[in-house]
């Protein structure tokens, strides 16, 4: 269920920051038609940090409604307070989501034991499948392979989104967990190699813009077809880089707007519209990918 090309979906917003549900529905259809294998709703790219709990839950439920069972929906339910993460998870228990993506607690920098107890408490509070999410560049805390292995022994902790970009992590974790533990890359730049080396999928920002190419690339990479995967990935290589020229999701929202896929590149403060200099860099990447 959690494999292949999974989009870290943006949450489209109007110029005033209100969620644009019409644009959101169109994006869900775009991904289903393009062969995307799954949607992450309201993760980092979906601006979980600036949505209220009510909005967060509402956007997830709408994506489930729009998807109508045609594609798995994984909800971002992480928080840096364990009680808040449990609240979000329990609120979505019967929503129709296929699982939860739970980021490591950010800012407060827990120990490895604190991380273990945090995720254990969430897992024990819900029957939903839980995917761990390790992104030290965002959170200032690193979920180490040994802690992942401890957590993998809990029944409903089923996988991890590993976003360090360090391919050695893939092998360290694989050596410590059972074969059915799902290994997902959270780094577009190394996603193809992650799959070629035995990973199961990629939760991708680039997928917002080029879902068909990403789906095909992931399919070939998982099959070990290096040349075919590389041929599909190379045109996207600049996007993998330039979509992070400013903080995600600033560049990808501007790119979606530039491609006509959303009507506004709307964001909420403290995020601001992509700067002029960065726009030229993202434009070059879009042209390299053949998207404009």
From TrEMBL:
Summarize where pyruvate binds, as residue positions.
45, 203
Q: Which InterPro entries match?
A: Aldolase_TIM, DapA, DapA-like, Schiff_base-form_aldolases_AS, Schiff_base-form_aldolases_CS
Q: Which reaction does it catalyse?
A: L-aspartate 4-semialdehyde + pyruvate = (2S,4S)-4-hydroxy-2,3,4,5-tetrahydrodipicolinate + H2O + H(+)
* GO molecular function annotation: 4-hydroxy-tetrahydrodipicolinate synthase activity
Q: What is its EC number?
A: 4.3.3.7
The enzyme's first-digit EC class, named in words, is lyase
Q: In which pathway does it act?
A: Amino-acid biosynthesis; L-lysine biosynthesis via DAP pathway; (S)-tetrahydrodipicolinate from L-aspartate: step 3/4
Q: Where is the active site?
A: 133 (proton donor/acceptor), 161 (schiff-base intermediate with substrate)
Site description Part of a proton relay during catalysis, residues in chain: 44, 107
Keywords of the record, alphabetical order, are:
Amino-acid biosynthesis, Cytoplasm, Diaminopimelate biosynthesis, Lyase, Lysine biosynthesis, Schiff base
Does Lyase show up as a keyword for this record?
A: yes
Q: Which residues form a coiled coil?
A: none
Grouped into one coarse class, the protein's main location is cytoplasm
Localization terms from the record:
Cytoplasm
Source organism's superkingdom? Bacteria
Instruction: Tell me how this protein assembles.
Output: Homotetramer; dimer of dimers.
* Family named by the database record: Belongs to the DapA family.
Role summary? Catalyzes the condensation of (S)-aspartate-beta-semialdehyde [(S)-ASA] and pyruvate to 4-hydroxy-tetrahydrodipicolinate (HTPA).
The name this protein goes by in its record: 4-hydroxy-tetrahydrodipicolinate synthase
Taxonomic lineage from the root:
Bacteria, Pseudomonadati, Pseudomonadota, Gammaproteobacteria, Alteromonadales
């Amino acid at each position: 269920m959690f494999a292949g090309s999974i989009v870290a979906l943006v949450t489209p917003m109007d110029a005033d920051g209100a969620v644009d549900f019409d644009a959101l529905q169109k994006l869900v259809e775009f991904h289903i038609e393009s062969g995307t294998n799954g949607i992450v709703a309201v993760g980092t790219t979906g601006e979980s940090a600036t949505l209220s709990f009510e909005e967060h839950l509402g956007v997830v439920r709408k994506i489930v409604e729009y998807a109508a069972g045609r594609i798995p929906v994984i909800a971002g339910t992480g928080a840096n307070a364990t009680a808040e993460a449990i609240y979000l998870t329990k609120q979505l228990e019967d929503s129709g989501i296929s699982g939860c993506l739970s980021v490591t607690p950010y800012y407060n920098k827990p120990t490895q034991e604190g991380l273990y107890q945090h995720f254990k408490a969430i897992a024990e509070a819900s029957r939903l499948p839980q995917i761990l999410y390790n992104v030290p560049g965002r959170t200032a805390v690193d979920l180490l392979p040994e802690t992942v292995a401890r957590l993998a022994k809990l029944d409903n902790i089923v996988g991890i989104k590993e976003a360090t970009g360090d391919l050695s992590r893939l092998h360290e974790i694989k050596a410590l967990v059972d074969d059915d533990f799902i290994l997902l890359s959270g780094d577009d730049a190394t996603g193809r190699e992650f799959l070629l080396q035995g990973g199961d999928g990629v939760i991708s920002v680039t997928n917002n813009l080029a879902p068909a190419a990403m789906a095909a690339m992931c399919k070939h990479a998982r099959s070990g077809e290096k040349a075919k995967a590389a041929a599909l990935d190379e045109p996207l290589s600049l996007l993998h880089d330039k979509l992070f020229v400013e903080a995600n999701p600033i560049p990808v929202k501007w790119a979606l707007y530039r491609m006509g896929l959303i009507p506004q590149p709307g964001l909420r403060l403290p995020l601001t519209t992509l700067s002029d200099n960065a726009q030229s860099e993202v434009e070059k990447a879009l042209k390299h990918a053949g998207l404009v």
